[in-house]
Amino acid sequence: MTRSLLLVFAASFGATVSFYLLLSVVPLYATSAGASGIGAGMTTAVLMLSTVAAEFAIPSLVNRFGYRVIFGAGLFLLGVPALFLAESASMATILAVCVVRGLGFAVFVVVGSALVAQLVPPERRGEGLGVFGVVVGIPGVIALPLGVWLIGQVGYPPVFIAGAVAALAGLVGVAGLPGRAPKPEQSLSILGGLRQGALVRPAIVFSASAMASGVVLTFLPLALPNGSNLAALGLLAQAVAATIGRWWAGKHGDRHGPARLLIPGVVVAAVGLGMLVMIANPIAVLAGMLLFGAGFGVTQNASLTLMFNQVSPGGYGTVSALWNLAYDAGLGLGAAGFSVLATQTGYPAAFACTAVLMLVALAARGRVTKQ
Fold it and tell me: Average pLDDT in the 74-89 region?
């Protein structure tokens, strides 16, 4: 493991801690300042909308300015705005901070995985991306509930400062990252990537799984009749299983090829989601969340590695952007579509329909070969 790769992991860990530490805290902060439920929801919506919009531009910015400059700018945009939350609780300030932090988060998610693909030998790319998945997965397990707990112990301002420091600490190692990206003539644009079936097909399959993840994260607490404790335990089980699954898929995929893991990963995740039909059974819920998390983690690694294997280094930024667009768009569309479906069918039937949709998306996979 090279020094540059360790620096990427360290900075990525801090950026992810910053993101998840404030993810649930900011909506609560808006509510405490008098915002309605819609206003609180807008904070997350604006954050993710800004992220998705920025992801389209990141590959061209990397080609122009290089990894080091853009990654450093992303950490700055993710960290510094959090400090303004400690000074003002106005809705305008909160939403403006969410917009800017969304830009910073877009830089991190696109450039982070592209740097890992650039720095890890091709024969160990899956393992490298698997370790990267663990690095960015652990904060999702720990920092998300930690932020909510901390505001009850120390209040909002210290949590905002901690979120800023976590991201800005990564700037210390930015100088050790690679500078310029591959030459522009070797690069691949977003539109060019969308014209390549070998990239679009696994992205579609993964996006359907991401839709299911958006459904679970948003509606599991609402669907459970047994209270929030089971929901919290189920989401924790899902997050831990996804992190382990992502790491395992990287090691296994390097030996046997990531394409072999894509279908099994989706099937396992769909089976786990389908078990939520028995939403009143705590054992079925926990087993389903473990299966869904494991399958989703495998699908994450397999789809991303498979897409990286189809392009030269000049296309790594575009592949990362396309994959993250599939992820973020899937999360949002899944939550929005499920809310409409569940009002018509009820939660059990809606979970079953979502599981079937995941399996139907496998038809888009087609034939993908490793280059």
Answer: 93
Provide the CATH topology of domain 3-181: Growth Hormone; Chain: A; (1.20.1250)
Q: How many residues are recorded in the chain? A: 371
Q: How many CB atoms lie within 10 A of CB 281?
A: 14
Task: For the chain, give every domain's residue range.
Answer: 3-181, 190-364
Cα 148 from chain centroid (whole Å): 20
C-alpha–C-alpha distance, residues 236 and 144, integer Å: 10
Domain 190-364 annotated CATH 3.30.930.10: no
38-42, 213-217, 358-362, 364-368 — which one is most confidently predicted on average? 358-362
Q: How far apart are CA 315 and CA 190, in angstroms?
A: 9
324 C-beta neighbours (distance < 10 Å), count = 24
| End-to-end alpha carbon distance in the chain | 24
Express as a percent the part of the chain with pLDDT over 70.
Answer: 93
pLDDT at 15 over 70: yes
Query: CA separation (Å) from 150 to 20, 154, 285?
Result: 13, 6, 28
145-179: string of b/e by CB count within 10 Å (b at 16+)? ebbeebbeeeebeebbebbbebbbbbbebbeebee
Query: Please, are residues 54 and 78 in contact by the beta-carbon 8 Å criterion?
Result: no
Q: Please indicate whether the domains covering 3-181 and 190-364 agree at the CATH topology level.
A: yes
Q: Give residue-wise pLDDT tens across range 240-252.
A: 999 899 899 988 8
pTM score:
0.79
Q: Which amino acid is at 24?
A: S
